[in-house]
Design a protein that fits this description.
Elements: E1 3-7, H1 13-26, H2 38-49, E2 54-59, E3 62-71, E4 81-88, H3 97-112, E5 116-122, H4 126-134, E6 138-149, E7 152-162, H5 181-189
Parallel strand pairs: 4-5
Antiparallel strand pairs: 1-2, 2-3, 3-4, 5-7, 6-7
């Protein structure tokens, strides 16, 4: 089986929406109430890639999942932290896709100079909790009844992972396009699954 992790493209939007839309429609995992259209999703990909990575994992040419990072908060002192999100096609769950995507995403975030990554998990979601624990995330708090969807209030547990040792006077993180092509390609192909 050929596995490839690569940078998302606008042309992936339709396939990525196919993965994401059932999660929006049928669960509280995402707090969006209506699935985005493919053009809206293409804009999200483009906007995200202006600053942060958005990765897809292909198995034999089929997109099995995707992961991306986004700004944690707007205030400048938060600039060394990002939020992460990951979605895997149901056919590829429990096959290591999430771990493979997150490992590569975190390698790129380290290259950019980020120090922390956060993930919000709507409760209950045992598989997401297992994934985040397996990667070294630790729970840092629960927003109780923070979102109302599908006729119920939902809690979100927040998880944190330190990407690197925290040092004084850190350099400003690089925007994703500022990474050298050589270092980015080396990161994506290193230890390829």
């Amino acid at each position: 089986m050929c596995v490839l992790i690569r940078i998302a493209k606008e042309s992936d939007a339709g396939t990525l929406v196919d993965i994401y839309a059932p999660i929006v429609r049928d669960s509280a995992i995402s707090f969006e109430l209506e699935p985005p259209t493919a053009p809206e999703f293409a804009q999200r990909i483009t906007k995200t890639l202006e600053n942060n990575p958005w990765l897809v994992l292909e198995k034999d040419g089929e997109i099995a999942g995707y992961a991306y990072a986004s700004e944690h908060r707007m205030r400048k002192a938060y600039q060394w932290s990002v939020d992460s999100a990951i979605y895997v096609h149901p056919r590829y769950r429990q096959q290591g896709v999430g771990g493979d995507l997150y490992h590569k995403l975190f390698d790129i975030l380290r290259l950019q100079g980020y120090y922390n990554v956060y993930a919000g998990v709507t409760l209950p979601n045992d598989s997401s909790i297992r994934l985040h624990k397996s990667l070294g995330f630790r729970p840092v708090g629960v927003y109780e009844s923070v979102g109302y969807k599908l006729g119920a209030w939902h809690d979100v547990c927040w998880w944190q992972l330190a990407l690197q040792y925290h040092k004084d006077n850190p350099a400003m993180p690089l925007r994703f396009p500022q990474l050298s092509i050589v270092s980015l390609e080396a990161t994506l192909t290193q230890g390829r699954p």
